[in-house]
Amino acid sequence: MALVRVISSDGAAFLVSQRLAKRSGKLKTEIETFRKSSDNSEAQPEIRIVTIRAEILRLVLQWLQQHQNDPVLPANQNEQDGRGDAEMGQSQWDRDFLAPMDLGIVMELILAANHLEVKGLLDITCKLVESKITGRTVDEIRTAFKLKSDFKGNEEEQTRLENRWCVEN
Amino acid sequence: MDLVTPKAPEEIFPLEVWDLILDQLISSSDLINCNQVCKAWRKLLELKQTTFFMPKVFPILYKYLETVEDDEDENKEEKEETITTILKMRLVSHGWKEAVDSYLQNNHPVNEFSFEDLTLEDIGNDELVPYSPYQFGVGGDVTSGSIAKLESFLGKGFSPDINPFITREVCYCGNVDNELDQRRLNTAFKNMLEAFGSHIWTCELISRTHTNRARFYKLVGSFLRLMPNLRSLQLRYYGSICNGRRRTNSEREELDMLLKNEPLPRLEHLTILEMMHVPYPLSVGLLETNGHLQNLAIHNGDFDDDVLLPDYIANVHIPNLKLLRFPWCEQNLCCVFHL
User: Fold this and answer.
1) The pTM is what?
2) Assuming Cys at both sites, which of A129, B36, B163, B317 could form a disulfide with B199, CB separation 3.0 to 4.6 Å?
3) What tens digit of pLDDT does each residue of B16-53 get?
4) ipTM of model
5) CATH of B115-338, one of 3.80.10, 1.10.10, 3.20.20, 3.30.428
6) Which residues form the F-box domain (chain B) (predicted)?
7) CATH code where residue A34 lies
8) What is the per-residue pLDDT across B60-75, written as a single tens digit (0 to 9) for each?
9) Are A146 and A103 in contact (CB under 8 A)?
10) Which residue does chain B place closest to A55, by CA atoms?
11) Is the distance from CB of B206 to CB of B171 less than 8 angstroms?
């Protein structure tokens, strides 16, 4: 089985099958570029991902492993509006996978899925964050994201005024 | 202090000190980098993650929030829901507000320039003038009702330090038939710019009025002087010019003097300029005072009676120009030069 070494920003190396890695658009491109530039067809590619730390990279690979037999969603699917079929693709396993995560980790996962071009993972993580915002009050959003209002002076009041002006206009 | 051997953060300073240091960081990119440095720093930054990731996440998330395509009027309710959600996100925290505003201001996601889509036959059809719900201020059909709205805007209670235009984008549409209303509109627009013009980065000026070259030059110049931070300007003139398009020798001398004695302001941040049927000397003045432009589109300009437009452009000093477009060329095919 052909393997590839994927190295996180903090130096952790993950040895994964090329078949699995190629389900990420970014890793697929990197592997193909390596093949073209390498004289030795047996050489093992090594890909360093400088923007993703080990904990997050492990989660991405874990998700890819679980979904390795799913049809690959093209990166430009629903390009018009950017959305994939998140609801269709979300399984009980996905829900259990995301359930224990803090929203900070989910946001980091969004950036990782976007960088590595893993459309299915991007869809379910964005959908999760979106569901914590849409239809909620400002206070409910702050609670969900563990945020406190940090507006200074009358900034919050001015922001309300700006928002009202936008809607009126 | 030995800085060569790697050490745990707490071996250098107590974690409370690191907390104070990290607390000083503002930039989302800096905080994201620090979040990757070590477990101790990540732990200290844990509560801030959902704030500092938002500027990077929002552009990706936006597509999931945007439930309908821009031009589907029949889905107005869903579109309004999207806008409501985005506006609500601005109220969550200062960091989220900055993340949302920065994306809207730099990407104008729902109001891309559609200059190339206009054909000569389309001119005058109001529906083809792009209008977006994020284009706050004045825009679309200007009636005396909307002039009153603009006049009342100044009484809304905005502090001049606050930017009331979320996208930093305003549109002036001077298509008022009644001269009195036109003057009222100009005064209201100028008053608004005097208070908030420095916040504006993108401006669309559309005029359908019957005027003369000098008056139009002065009017636009007076607007531009109040928008010193403008980055992108779209200027369209669909009206008629007194004495026709051709200039007499004496008129030409007068206009040349105007250009020399009352130069247009140099807009230091202006990189994109799109001009449609803009009369002389405004057309020439804009190019001469803004030689730092990077992206220029000209649709039937009025530059120099004796020289063809491409030859004229070739002789103007615009050293940073990367993209030059003549969108009217050959059956509405856009003629593009990447320089």
Assistant:
1) 0.79
2) B163
3) 888 888 888 888 888 888 988 888 898 899 888 999 99
4) 0.87
5) 3.80.10
6) 14-45
7) 3.30.710.10
8) 998 888 755 555 555 6
9) yes
10) B36
11) yes
